[in-house]
Amino acid sequence: MPDITVEALTGPGRAALHAVLLCGKGSASIIDQAFCGRGLSPHGTIIDADGDVIDDAILIEWPGEAERFVLTLHGSPFIRDRVIERLMQLGAAAAPSTARLWPARGQKCCNKVREEALLALPTALSHQACAFLLEQASERGFSGWLARSVEQGVVRQELDELLRLSDVGIGMLVAARVVLAGEPNAGKSTLFNVLTGHQRVITSHQPGTTRDLIEEEMCLLGFPIQLVDGAGLRSAAGEVEREGVRRMEAAMEAADLVVYLVPPGAVEPVAGMKGTPRGRTLVIHSRRDEDPGGEIAGLGISSVTAEGLPQLQERILQEIYGDDRNLTGRVCPFLPGHR
């Protein structure tokens, strides 16, 4: 496999992390042998010929037509060299030159942005977020745009576009807070378990089962989301349940989005009522498997049959970030300090 090359993207010596680039037709085959992933997560391990772990790593497939993979590792140069050696054992050759992703032009003024992107990689929850960071660290991303702006200046229209997209770029790394709300037994906890992928919350047909706030960070179509479940909204009799309702109402007030579930037979909340924040509430009809023929206005879902769940995920992101969320090939800030 002479067309496959490997090289270090980071400088010599110890650093916060190191990055290695593997590129060329057939690179995916080497990755399959050297990288052990963890489901859909970009996080995994690099293993040697005996199956022993060399290091934890993050794997990103660089966007574009050519096969290119970036592995980010811990900051030891010894570990970086062992990983390169392992990839060469599997058929890669040492690259004749470096900086294939980051040409020399503009490096001096953009090292800070590039370093910020690389340091943010371990916190990225999805392949999409990792690829987004690497693209923004490159010449065609935010780092390269800064280099060009120093040389050529900028126009107001460019700045307006960057500010408009910044919420989406920051949202690739910073989880938006989404609260599942509704009356007791609306199906909040069942939906929470389905969206997070495991039985995080005890569910029951007995109203009031969930009392305290339950939170978990999850990945929704590439975006991190802090999902929150809690007490059903009603006039509670006991002190414990009243406290649970109070905490739920406070969580709704602070949320980026409230997904309010309306089960069969329940009445939709009026905007601004029942603790729903105006402009930040998405009303969804839940438990549709129990009343499939009932007439509803808007989206209906069932956590049992999965009806409407893909549309719900899309709607959540649409409500928070709008329709224009594809950042591939576009310049975009990715940290709050970039604004």
Describe this structure in words.
It is a single chain. By secondary structure, this protein is α/β, with parallel strands linked by helices. It has three domains: 5-94, Probable tRNA modification gtpase trme, domain 1 (Gyrase A, domain 2); 107-170; 176-321, 3-Layer(aba) Sandwich (Rossmann fold). The chain contains nine helices and twelve strands. The protein has a seven-stranded mixed β-sheet. Helix 3 (107-120) packs antiparallel against helix 4. It starts with a strand and ends in an 18-residue tail after the last helix.
Task: Please write out the topology.
Elements lengths: L4 E4 L8 E7 L3 H8 E4 L2 E7 L5 E9 L6 E7 L2 H13 L3 E2 L12 H14 L6 H11 L4 H11 L3 H16 L4 E7 L5 H9 L17 E7 L2 E7 L9 H16 L2 E6 L18 E5 L23 H13 L18
Parallel strand pairs: 1-7, 8-10, 8-11, 11-12
Antiparallel strand pairs: 1-2, 2-6, 3-4, 4-5, 5-6, 9-10
Helix pairs in contact: 3-4, 3-5
Features:
single chain, 339 residues, alpha/beta, Gyrase A, domain 2, Rossmann fold, 3 domains, 7-stranded mixed β-sheet, 5-stranded mixed β-sheet, 9 helices, 33% helix, 21% strand, elongated
Name the CATH superfamily classification of the largest domain.
P-loop containing nucleotide triphosphate hydrolases
Supply the helix-strand structural class: alpha/beta
Total helical elements:
9
CATH topology of the largest domain: Rossmann fold
Order of helices and strands: EEHEEEEHEHHHHEHEEHEEH
Average pLDDT over all residues: 84
Percent in strands: 15-25%
**CATH architectural designation of the largest domain:** 3-Layer(aba) Sandwich
Fraction of residues in helices?
25-40%
Distance linking N and C termini: 45 Å
Q: Per the principal axes of the C-alpha atoms, what is the gross shape? A: elongated
How many structurally independent domains? 3
Query: Main β-sheet: number of strands, strand sense, barrel status?
Result: 7 strands, mixed
